[in-house]
């Protein structure tokens, strides 16, 4: 069967470009369709790349470029809580900045079990870097200023009509693809076209957001600058994110429960109250947006050969910075499954794994984010009236409320659980063995090799991570010597099915993580364990490979 492009991706934001890069890494061509102009900068929305996303970008060869961009080297990535931006600080969550991110192991997220800790960087820096890597890929074609008009699925193909927006009277371009992926945001036309609906909570909070240029703000700060500076006082609560670490800032004004009309809230007054400045302070509004934080997850992620990823599949309040990052995880997961199809070694039934793996995770993460939003709203209703008093009672109030804010929020800004704790327990292409994956929270997790969990990280040598050595499909970790027969049986079964298999002998390494108790462990390219065991004969090796390819079912011994 022939096609013009194996995959058409609608939307060239971070999720769409990452999906394209993941496919190109496997040698698969795709076409990105984007309505914006080439080089158009996005809104200043996302401000954070999670550790799992940085691990993905490491595999794609992008992480170093991303880590070198964003805030100045010496600008703190801390999160600060204060009575106003220029007021008294009452709590600070220490997060290493760019220059010390890989060497500063202090603080609540200074020593994560990963080769790529998180990075605070705005989407305005992220997208141009990803676009630069996309442009270098000969397998990726990007159609800027183009729009997908419609598509139809026939005979295992997706027939797509695409219009050049700069020549609207010209006939549309017709393309045939094996798969189409909607990475086209919260108002996704692809989602609507496949009859999917967003389900959940329509309103969690209302926010006025304003990007400002204020060169004089830094000189007015009483407390040291931080990546995020939250204002809590009885008059107005909000926060400000450093975009360039010098003069550009993003301010969120959190409306109160009774404030349902955005226009009724004086934006300038709210900004000045959050900042703690008077009418004499000069600033420039660069952009503004009024938005409603929601918790909505699509009721399906797939219709035939059409898929949804990113904001097209889920929308939630941006607590823990996991909106874009969840979309990047979708992209990596889906690219893996589509590659297995296009390379020809997985059955069509194996594609059901994308929805069965990702849908439960997006549902869980959306609830973590919503619950945290509700908890923060409750704290804003509990701000002590004497918080700003210059008295011993005022200081006591600041100490107590600051500790309360620290305890509540350290889990979302140092969210190891969301990064490393989630697991896939309903996948048809994993072999479960009866052990239950450990539960996790937003901030904490327990490392595990239970199938479906992320294989715990360890270093193979100087600067080389386990994840650097994983193959493009499956990797068998040999953790103890003496399993030549199992290895031979598995390699023969994989070769017979055409399944790519890499073998990694780590039996000679010392001080492996204690979680690695089985002598053999199969890990997918996205670092999730898919099987573990003590040995394999010919029959069980064939059954294992059949399951991993979607061709069979293996009953645990």
Describe this structure in words.
- The protein is of the alpha+beta class and 557 residues long.
- Among the domains are: 5-70 and 121-198 and 295-368, FAD/NAD(P)-binding domain (3-Layer(bba) Sandwich); 423-548, Glutaredoxin, CATH 3.40.30.
- Helix content is 28%, strand content 24%.
- It contains twelve helices and 24 strands.
- Strands 1, 2, 7, 8, 9, 10, 16 and 17 form an eight-stranded mixed β-sheet that branches. An eight-stranded mixed β-sheet has the order 5-4-12-13-14-11-15-18. Strands 22-21-23-24 form a four-stranded mixed β-sheet, with helices on one face.
- Helix 1 packs parallel to helix 7 (322-342).
Brief digest:
The protein has 557 residues and is of the alpha+beta class. The chain contains twelve helices and 24 strands.
Shape, please? globular
Assembly type of the chains comes to single chain
Under CATH at level 1, the class of one domain stands as Alpha Beta
Major sheet attributes: 8 strands, mixed
Q: What's the end-to-end separation, in Å?
A: 40 Å
The structure class reads alpha+beta
State the helicity in percent bands: 25-40%
- Strand composition percent: 15-25%
Q: What is the CATH topology classification name of one domain?
A: FAD/NAD(P)-binding domain
Tally of separate helices: 12
> Mean of residue pLDDT?
93
User: What do we call the CATH homologous superfamily of one domain?
Assistant: FAD/NAD(P)-binding domain
Assigned CATH architecture of one domain: 3-Layer(bba) Sandwich
Extract low-pLDDT stretches.
553-557
> What is the count of β-strands?
24
Estimated radius of gyration: 25 Å
């Amino acid at each position: 069967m022939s096609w013009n492009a194996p995959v058409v991706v609608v939307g060239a934001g971070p999720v769409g470009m990452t999906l394209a890069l993941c496919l190109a890494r496997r040698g698969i061509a795709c076409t990105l369709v984007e309505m914006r102009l080439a080089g158009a900068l996005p809104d200043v929305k996302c401000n954070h790349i999670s550790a799992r996303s940085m691990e993905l970008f490491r595999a794609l060869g992008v992480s170093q470029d991303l880590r070198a961009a964003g805030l100045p080297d010496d600008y703190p990535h801390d999160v600060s809580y204060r009575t106003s931006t220029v007021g008294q600080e009452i709590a600070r969550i220490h997060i290493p900045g760019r220059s010390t991110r890989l060497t500063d192991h202090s603080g609540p997220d200074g020593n994560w079990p990963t080769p790529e800790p998180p990075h605070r960087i705005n989407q305005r820096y992220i997208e141009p870097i990803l676009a630069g890597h996309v442009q270098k890929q000969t397998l990726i074609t990007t159609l800027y200023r183009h729009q997908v008009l419609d598509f139809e699925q026939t005979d295992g193909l997706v027939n797509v009509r695409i219009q050049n927006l700069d020549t609207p009277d010209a006939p549309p371009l017709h393309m045939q693809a094996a798969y189409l992926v909607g990475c086209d945001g919260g108002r996704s036309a692809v989602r609507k076209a496949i009859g999917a609906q967003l389900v959940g909570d329509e309103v969690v909070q209302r926010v006025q957001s304003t990007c400002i240029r204020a060169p004089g703000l830094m000189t007015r700060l009483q407390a040291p600058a931080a990546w995020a500076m939250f204002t809590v006082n009885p008059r107005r609560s909000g926060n400000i994110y450093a975009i360039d670490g010098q003069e550009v800032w993003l301010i969120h004004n959190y409306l109160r429960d009774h404030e349902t009309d955005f226009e009724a809230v004086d934006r300038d007054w709210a900004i000045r109250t959050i900042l703690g400045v008077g009418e004499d302070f000069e600033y420039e509004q660069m952009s503004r947006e009024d938005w409603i934080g929601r918790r909505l997850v699509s009721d399906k992620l797939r219709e035939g050969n059409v898929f949804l990823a990113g904001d097209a599949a889920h929308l939630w309040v941006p607590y823990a910075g996991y909106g874009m990052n969840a979309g990047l995880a979708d992209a990596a997961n889906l690219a893996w499954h589509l590659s297995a199809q296009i390379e020809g070694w997985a059955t069509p039934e194996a594609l059901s794994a994308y929805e069965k793996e990702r849908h439960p995770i997006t549902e869980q993460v959306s609830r973590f984010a919503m619950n945290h939003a509700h908890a923060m709203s409750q704290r804003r209703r509990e701000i002590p009236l004497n918080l700003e008093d210059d008295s011993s009672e005022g200081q006591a109030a600041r100490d107590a409320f600051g500790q309360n804010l620290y305890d509540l929020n350290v889990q979302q800004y140092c969210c190891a659980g969301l990064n490393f704790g989630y697991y896939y327990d309903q996948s048809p292409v994993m072999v479960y063995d009866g052990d239950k994956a450990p539960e996790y929270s937003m901030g904490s997790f327990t490392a595990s090799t239970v199938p479906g969990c992320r294989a715990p990280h360890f270093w193979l040598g100087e600067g080389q991570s386990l994840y650097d050595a994983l193959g493009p499909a499956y990797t068998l970790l040999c953790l103890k010597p003496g399993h030549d027969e199992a290895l031979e049986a598995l390699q023969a079964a994989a070769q017979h099915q055409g399944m790519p298999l890499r073998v990694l002998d780590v039996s000679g390494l010392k001080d492996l993580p204690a979680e690695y108790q089985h002598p053999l462990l199969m890990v997918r390219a996205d670092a999730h364990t898919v099987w573990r065991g003590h040995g394999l004969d010919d029959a069980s090796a064939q059954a294992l490979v059949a399951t991993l390819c979607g061709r069979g079912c293996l009953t645990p011994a």
